[in-house]
Amino acid sequence: MPDTLSVTDNRTGKTYELPITDGTVRAMDLRQIKTDADDFGLMAYDPAFTNTASCRSAITYIDGERGILEYRGYPIEQLAEQSTYLETAFLILYGHLPTQAELDAWTHNITYHTFVHENIKKFLEGFRYDAHPMGMLVGTIGALSTFYPDARHVLDEESRELQTWRLIAKVPTLAAFAYRHNRGMPFVYPDNDLSFAGNFLSMLWKMSESKYTPDPVLERAIQVLFILHADHEQNCSANAMRAVGSSRSDPYSATAAAAAALYGPLHGGANEEVLHMLMEIGHKERVPEFVKKFKGGEGRLMGFGHRVYKNYDPRAKIIKRTADEVFDLTGRNPLLDIALELERIALEDDYFIERKLYPNVDFYSGIIYQALGFPMEMFPVLFAIPRTSGWVAQWREMITDPEQKIARPRQIYTDGHKKDYVPIGRR
Ligand code: ACO
User: CA 198, CA 138: separation in Å to the nearest integer?
Assistant: First the structure.
């Protein structure tokens, strides 16, 4: 059987053979389908890209029906259990697990670049005392491009490598500085003796002690959360990173755009919505009443359902396990009992079963972040730190892909033509 698609244009009666490769037809192959020589040719219409592959990618694989997530072919469960965030970031970026020598060099390079220019502090101080930390993060990531003008050489491999280290290393510093500014606390400089996650905790929570020692359980929990959030293929923010980077703007500007995409409640903000929902429910006994409301279209069960996963989100399963370890230390977040009851009832309910609605990554992540002591405004910031490695990997793949060009979709124009200009007094 040939790998082709036969398309008959009923307007002209002509039939076309379109090659099928990797389960796709090329949208440009549609252009030959014309009613006459002056016709522009057929286009594909796909608002929100729900059925359009915009690139070939070797970074992340998701099988939403079976609940599978892999980075470079390695299952997320194994990475969460056995890897570290920096090792996983290396895997995502370079396509293989590092040797000890590669990991040592990589860790050194990231650790060496954690400091930011002193003027960044002044920049942050310019924000109002109650500025949202994610807004500050977006602003300061963008500002980094002015400190590293060499970053505009995006076609230079060495420059791309240097900016990769800088971005992954400096985003946690900017994130922690944004948090400290928001709390009116002095900035804490990076401590390069600590792990990537441990240093982040130190920059957040160090007070008057001369050396901050992170609790190993909390350090590990942050690390697992970072691994789970490192990449998720062509989501809204990865798409923003690729689209902005496709005009060859520098990677700091493109990462600021990606972080801005993550800021939205439909992307990085859903776990905050879950907490609001759990607080509104208030008690386990009220769960059935709320489930009934959600089924009746009165609001949505936040943290349930996913555009891609039609099964249990594998990240949610891992977070649930991590939550138990954290709660042994911090004490149980009372919202967990409501969440567990909500999950139990929803997963037995025909409405949720028929629509394949399962807990997604956000269902439990907010509960665990809250138990770790983070205010809700920090949730998208915590997402942006590890996702930086995914964004940069997507950007590097895009910039070195000979098939990619400046991202520029088409449109269907919907208004009239050749209207005569009417002076304002006669409108
Ligand atoms: N609660 C109740 N019903 C739901 C829910 C939900 N959480 N999610 C979907 N449905 C229902 C819809 O009403 C619809 O029902 P219908 O067929 O009777 O009209 C059906 O399930 C299909 O829903 P869609 O909105 O078409 O699914 P889509 O793929 O567009 O939406 C989304 C996915 C946005 C994640 C949705 O499930 C949702 O809003 N969930 C809650 C918000 C959330 O948790 N977002 C985080 C996603 S993970 C992330 O971004 C990191």
Answer: 23
Structure tokens at 395: 């950007």
Q: Is the C-beta atom of 362 inside 6 A of ligand 1? A: yes
Give the mutation target among 293, 357, 362, 383 for probing the ligand 1 site: most ligand atoms within 8 A of CB.
357
> If you take atom 40 of ligand 1, which residue's CA is the nearest one?
305
Structural domain spans, the chain? 1-45, 59-400
Band of residue 266 on the pLDDT scale cut at 50, 70, 90: confident
Locus of tokens 């299952």: 75
Multiple choice CATH, 59-400, 1.10.580.10, 3.40.50.720, 3.40.50.300, 3.90.230.10:
1.10.580.10
Does residue 316 line the site of ligand 1, with CB under 6 A? no
Give the catalytic positions in this structure.
Answer: 267, 306, 362
Binding site membership of 305 for ligand 1 (Cβ less than 6 Å): yes
- Give the tens place of pLDDT for each residue, 97-126: 999 999 999 999 999 999 999 999 999 999
Q: How far is the CA of 304 from the centre of ligand 1 (A)?
A: 7
CA–CA distance, 275 with 280 (Å, rounded to integer): 8
pTM: 0.94
Q: Is the CB of 123 under 6 A from ligand 1?
A: no
Check if 270 has its Cβ closer than 6 Å to any atom of ligand 1: yes
